[in-house]
Design goal:
Layout: H1 2-14, H2 18-38, H3 42-58, E1 63-69, H4 78-82, E2 92-96, H5 110-123, E3 130-135, H6 142-158, E4 163-168, E5 176-179, E6 183-187, E7 216-222
Parallel strand pairs: 2-3, 3-4
Antiparallel strand pairs: 1-7, 2-5, 5-6, 6-7
Helix pairs in contact: 1-2, 2-3, 5-6
Domain MIT: 3-54
Domain MITD1 C-terminal phospholipase D-like: 75-222
GO biological process, one term: midbody abscission
Length: 229
């Protein structure tokens, strides 16, 4: 199955469908790694390791895609933006964003946005078991509200077998999301690229595909994460 997946990756690579080929390379390599662990036949282990080295070399090209979200554009829900990178092998996610803190601002619902992002991960098709959040403390009276909301999200995720690890940093500035299949997404505004809905009963309040966006840029990269053999 691993070799078949990588052959598909080679075909996609030749067709200049680089994003799809990288996903297939990664999945194929992971399947071959599982085969290495499962077999006791040293000859087979050697053969699989040779193939892994070969396919890792093929998949080691740099990848960068940029998406520009225009002011008031719609159709950019978290599902639409992230789903193609959330393959079944994704089990761990890192979210670095200094502003996952205030529930209500003039135009922001940052903790609610993080909750929606977590809901997307729970729905799959990935099998996420751990989410790491690195953010900054809210200021003043907002800190207790921030901590209460994050703890509630943490408890709720545990009901679905997902662990949320929360760390706070006063020096964090970058906003990026990483998956353990090698994909990294950097959004200029972090998860906060949706505009405030016009009302609680207006179109786009519940369906983020219909919610107008702020102008921002999304950069997608792939970093090779090869497990030890």
């Amino acid at each position: 199955a691993g070799a078949q997946t990588v052959r598909r990756a080679v075909q996609l690579d030749a067709a200049a469908r680089f994003q799809e080929s990288l996903v297939c390379y990664q999945e194929g390599i992971d399947l071959l790694l599982q085969a290495v662990k499962a077999t006791t036949d040293e000859a087979k282990k050697h053969h699989y390791r040779q193939k892994i080295s070969e396919f890792t070399f093929l998949s080691d090209g740099k990848y960068h895609k940029q998406i520009r979200i225009e002011e008031n554009a719609t159709g950019f829900s978290y599902e639409k933006l992230f789903q193609e990178y959330l393959t079944e092998i994704v089990s761990e996610v890192w979210v670095e964003d200094p502003y996952i803190r205030q529930v209500h601002q003039a135009s922001r619902y940052l903790l609610y946005n993080f909750l929606r992002f977590c809901e997307m991960l729970v729905k799959g098709p990935c099998k996420v078991k751990t989410i790491h959040l690195i953010t900054s403390y809210d200021k003043g009276m907002g800190r207790s509200q921030q901590m209460s909301a994050l703890e509630e999200i943490k408890r709720s995720l545990s009901n679905y077998g997902v662990t949320l690890n929360i760390d706070f940093s006063s020096s964090i500035h970058d906003r990026e999301i990483r998956f353990n299949n090698g994909w990294m997404i950097k959004i200029g505004r972090g998860l906060d690229y949706f505009k405030k809905p016009q009302g609680h009963f207006s179109i786009g309040y519940s369906d983020f595909d219909l919610r107008p966006c702020h102008e921002t840029t999304v950069d997608v990269f792939h970093t090779k994460h090869t497990k030890k053999m």
